[in-house]
Amino acid sequence: MRIGMHVAGLLPYRTGRETYAQALLGALAGLDHDNEYLVFVSPQNRHLFDRPERNFHTVEVKLPRFPSRRLWEIARLHLAPAVRRLDLVHLLESPLPVYQPAKALATIHDIIPLLRPDLFPLKGRVFYRQALVRGTRRLRTVIASSEQTKRDLVARLRLDPQRIRVIYPSVEPRFAPLSDEWTLSAVRQKYALPERFLLYVGTLEPRKNLLRLIGACRGLRKSGFDMPLVLAGGRGWLCDDVIATAEAMPDCVRLTGFVDDADLPALYNAATTFVYPSLYEGFGTPPLEAMACGLPVVCSSRSSLPEVVGDAALLVDPEDEEGIGSAILDATRDDKLRRRLREAGLARARLFSWDDTARHMLGAYEALARGLPIPEKERAEDAA
Predict the structure, then answer these.
(1) Domains recognised in the chain with CATH numbers
(2) Three-state secondary-structure class, residue 179
(3) pTM of the predicted protein model
(4) What DSSP string describes 68-102?
(5) Of all helices (H) and strands (E), which one includes residue 108?
(6) Which of 17, 120, 235, 291 is most buried by its number of CB atoms within 10 A?
């Protein structure tokens, strides 16, 4: 098969979607030496998706600004000779192009702008709504990152569940326990971190529920708990109130800004407890990365997160500040509980493998190319 991988609209640095696309390409390259892949990149993000394997070819395209970008994608995906010679195209960017080639599938991590429009600026939520509704209309196959996302697609977009295949993302092998004190000391020094701290990793934006997390930590501090909260991530939209609140409490909350991707494993290992009270996630990779590093996790009980962490984390109501604080206290001070969470987290993380993800994705490619139904018995959720 000749398979197109459309990542041209992704960012030139790694956030969740870029990490997913990069890891998937790497896993496919390690597993599949027979099919030919054309990876459509932008000049800005090419460095993330270039592959050395002989059956992977990078095709650089330039995306004009809106509104002409939509017109470019229609023309490019329908008329470009390279696309016409493909057996299928996997759309890995978000939002989806409005029109796609006849044989196209897309990974959809979540439809949060439809479910929680209050967490997005007006322009963003209107645009994403249109792209989701129109962009999924022609797709023969949709890859959902979780059963929660599949349920949302069926309920809100009225997609036929037979068109949706759940294939879980995974965690890269570099996320693992570290015992090298020099490495841990170096990451603490680089980001001016104390010996013990609570950690959140992710973009600073409303759906991450960081104001309540800060409130929970403020309440703990009043009762004598002096471990600071470290918010590790770049600024997202509508985050000014989070920044202002954190900056007004420098002894209680530390802002690292965007963290170098290479530093993340050491940052998880240097932390004491990981906290992730998000209001909604299509999958939620950071808690899984933290568990793979042996870090006790306190996690929201909403959306896909219980599906991902299982019984290997302390689940909390993300709207209950007192409950968040109580779980943090337990996961930080109860040594027996910490050992259980560490062992359960490591075992849970081992259930997710990029090799399995790639193998199931190849099954979806084969089914789409041949016009066959989704092979239910090979779905990734059965493995987890």
Answers:
(1) 2-170+353-383 (3.40.50.2000), 181-349 (3.40.50.2000)
(2) coil
(3) 0.88
(4) HHHHHHHHHHHH-HHHHT-SEEEE-SSSPPSS--S
(5) strand 104-108
(6) 291
